[in-house]
Amino acid sequence: MSKKNNKKQRIKYNQQLKKKEDELAAKKQQDLLKKDKKEEQKQMEKLLGNFGLDENNNQQQQDKEEDFEDVSDEQMEMDSDSDSELEMDERGVKKIERHKVISKFKFQKKGKMSRDNYNRQKKNERKRYKNNIEILKGNSEEVQRKREILREKREAIKAKRKGKARIYNQQEVEMN
C-alpha cells in the first residue's frame, strides 16, 4: 500500500515540476518577444525619427517629467518631516535614532506590553528575588518564619498551576 502511495506521490511531484518548467519556459519566450518588439520599435523610431514623430515624443516626455516633479515635491516634504528625527554622524551621514523607533513601533502590538515595560518588570522581579534570598541568610526565628511563608507561597503557586488551588492567605494568618 505504501509503495503505491509513494509511487503516486512521485508521479504527482514530477508532473508539478514539469508544469513549473513549462511555465518558466513560456515566460522566457514572452520576455524575448517583448524585447524583440521593443528593439523593432527603437529601430523604427530611428528610421522615422526626423519625420514629425519627435514632437509627440517630446510632449510625452515633458508630461512624464512634470508628473515626476510633482511626486518629488511631495517626497521632499515627507523627507523634511523625517529629518527632524535624524541626527548627523561625524562624517556628515544621517543616522536614525533606532532605539526610539523600536520602542515606539516594533513591540507595541495589541494586548502586549512594550519592550521597555517588560524589561523593567523583569528587572524588578529579579531584585525582589535577590532581596528575599539576602533576607533569608540568617538563622533567627524571624528568618525561619519568612522562609516558611515563602515556601508556602511557592507551593501554593505550584498547586494553582496544577489545578489544586490552596488558599495560602489563611495559612499566613495562622502563622502570624
TrEMBL record:
Source organism: Pseudocohnilembus persalinus
Regions of compositional bias (Acidic residues) in chain numbering: 64-88
Composition-biased stretches (Basic and acidic residues): 18-45
Protein name as it appears in the record: Uncharacterized protein
Residues covered by region (Disordered): 1-132
Biased composition annotated in UniProt, kind: Basic residues: 1-11, 96-112, 120-130
